[in-house]
Amino acid sequence: MKERKPPARPTRKKVSDAEPEQVRLNKYIANAGVCSRREADKLIKSGVVKVNGKVITELGTKILPTDKVQFGDQTLRLEKSRYILLNKPKGFITTVEDPQKRNTVMALIREACPERVYPVGRLDRNTTGLLLFTNDGMIAKKLTHPRYGIKKIYHVVLDQPLTRADLQTIADGIELDDGFIKVNTIEYITDGKDKREIGLELHSGKNRIVRRLFEKLGYKVEKLDRVYFAGLTKKNLPRGKWRFLEEKEINMLKMISSK
Predict the structure, then answer these.
(1) pTM for the complete prediction?
(2) Which of 124, 166, 172, 191 is labelled catalytic?
């Protein structure tokens, strides 16, 4: 009697043998730190970008990460993803470049890394607190999109005590010029008679939204500090200083933005 051989196990394709996922050419160029995706489209249309030695001018072209991409005489390589958290001081505007040559937040992180990073959202010139920078376009887009409802907490100091009635008005929601705004929570920070210090949580990313809420009711915001952003806090991060995010914080941001 012949010995029966056990049935052959089905062979599985190794992960390493799988075809790499394609990426849009403009995204590849942006992730290589050359410019933004919009600017990359202009470069592609102008005929200065080659893929595997061939000039590409068609927008929307997809390539493999292993393809050779050239911009002029330079061969591009994908950058390492960077995530930098800054405790922003007053007097700096949130922009990459300023035609008026004012101080920008980029000056505060200039020595952080060779990669080209961008601020996620913005804080106005006189607002302090947490500001995230990254070259991870997908994370940045999701952290600023209203759909994801990213949590932000602010410490507000007003020019005069906030009345209980006005606090309730803000809690109930206020109609501004660009729509109805309802905060998630609002409360007094101090228990004493001075009701000028307020804690405020909201998910809206509209321009100057916190200041406009109080201005609508006749208050002036003297100090505004963002103390919490998307699960990140100012713990052990002095004003004007920055740090790289830890791996667990990066994973947290990816989980938040994947919901």
Answers:
(1) 0.75
(2) 124
